[in-house]
Amino acid sequence: MNYSKILLTVFLTALTSAYSSFPSTHIDWCLYFQRLQIYKPECKFYDDVDLHVEREIRAKPISPKPSQYSLQIQMQMQQCSAHYMYCTANYQCGEGQLRCIDMIRYRECCTPIRRDCPPVTHLNFRCIVSEPVSWCDEDRDCHTTPQQKCCPTGCNYNICI
């Protein structure tokens, strides 16, 4: 057995002993990378991971009583750029918004749930297929995607977003 395999075995044993409630010696893939402090965008939905997260803090006054002032600190995640993925509903984003990973800035962000398809120019597709096949014909065909919308690409086929 080489040195790196021994280290990995010791590391995994230490991790699994820390989580004794798990009956097996297997750990979640995202938890493994979290403990190694390796950033994986598809694993960003663990609330205790703070790698590559940018947040802004705003103080918001609560209706003050005479002679008593207090501030409510509200954590707000920044809005997504045009290219984001891995969206899920989450308490950190307000109602009507999804928590996503901004693929340009590599950070968590919030984006409104889309009611309409984005403009074709925003999708930025290059038409290289001679006989395109649509992924969907209507919104109900898109039940596994975050926005559950069937949208045109401008290349003679539709995609789910």
TrEMBL record:
UniProt GO cellular component terms: extracellular region
UniProt keyword terms in alphabetical order: Signal
Xref: PANTHER family: PROTEIN CBG26935, WAP DOMAIN-CONTAINING PROTEIN
The keyword Signal belongs to this UniProt entry's keyword annotation: yes
Name of protein: WAP domain-containing protein
MF (Gene Ontology): peptidase inhibitor activity
Signal peptide extent: 1-18
InterPro entries per UniProt: WAP_dom
Residues of the WAP domain: 110-161
